[in-house]
Amino acid sequence: MQHSPWRLNVAPCMDWTDRHCRYFHRLITRHTRLYSEMVTTGALLHGDVPRHLDYNPQEHPVALQLGGSEPDALAVAARLGARWGYDEINLNCGCPSERVQRGAFGACLMAEPALVRDGVKAMRDVVDIPVTVKHRIGIDQEESYAFVRDFVGTVAEGGCNVFIVHARNAWLQGLSPKENREIPPLRYEHVYRLKRDFPALTIVLNGGVKTAAEVESHLAHVDGVMLGRQAYHEPWSMAEWDARFFGASGPAPVREEVEASMVEYMERHVAAGGAWSHVARHCMGLWNGTPGARRWRQAWSDHSLKAMSPRGVAARAAASRMGSPSTA
Length: 328
Ligand SMILES: Cc1cc2nc3c(=O)[nH]c(=O)nc-3n(C[C@H](O)[C@H](O)[C@H](O)COP(=O)(O)O)c2cc1C
Hints:
- The chain is an alpha/beta fold.
- Helices cover about 40% and strands about 15% of the residues.
- The protein has two domains: about 10-245, TIM Barrel, CATH 3.20.20.70; about 255-325.
- The chain has an eight-stranded parallel β-barrel with strand order 1-2-3-4-5-6-7-8, surrounded by six helices.
- Helix 9 links the parallel strand 7 and strand 8.
- Helix 4 (about 70-85) packs across helix 6 (about 115-125), helix 6 (about 115-125) runs parallel beside helix 7 (about 145-155) and helix 14 runs antiparallel to helix 15 (about 310-320).
- It holds the Pfam family Dus.
């Protein structure tokens, strides 16, 4: 059976889903789609483009998420992303942070569907890869389903066929971004309804999903599911996804092998002048749920080991992990 390319996705997360993190996740799941951190059009138009866009070729399929609102700037940024080889350009219409609101993009764009439609069209005109939108079900106290339905209907006119829907409102005043991921209630029914009303569009559900059983139940209603915090904090929960959700028949990933590959990756990163801790910080959940996981994490986050080679730290971490299981 042919699955949607958006069947399972790891959410774009600032400060988390950088290229090191994505390389790590890719070792655990071959088929899941990975998203970059949000990169603003300003950063691409005026900043260090390779620093923002470079990635490892192993990361495919990988999407670049853009933050911006001005169609011409979005088009320039999207073209850069396509030239860099990304598989998708995703526009952020869901971030509620004040910094983003000052720039008049993110979630506040949900109040301007025609502008989003024009931005999507401007990007579609210059790239051949899919242009997708990630958004909320509403802003502030706007609870009606009609609001998100009209948003999707208008933006689809610009040529967006894939909508990733964080199933809660963004409250633009009074909540921090973290609270905005926890306090506004989840309304999965709105997302299911979008799929029923727009059967030709790809609808991906996001927000609060934790277990494979939950993924499975959502997949009965929508084309795909996106996970953020669960994927980041419990990365090994993704180890069963390829077999369970993509029907992959290859060997299942093995924690020891993933760790060994990450150590090699860190060695290369250090040889190129980087710090291994910038990589290791994303891998802290690798052994969660097994005896010694906490001691393993402690070794990898021990600042006094910073000058040691990744291989040396790995040996220490393995020895700590395999110490007394009773103190896990
Ligand atoms: C640390 C962090 C950073 C985030 N940064 C972004 C971002 O750059 N762009 C975006 O669209 N969403 C961002 N989000 C929101 C997630 O993509 C996702 O929509 C949200 O966490 C809900 O999904 P979850 O419950 O599976 O975590 C971020 C979330 C977290 C926890």
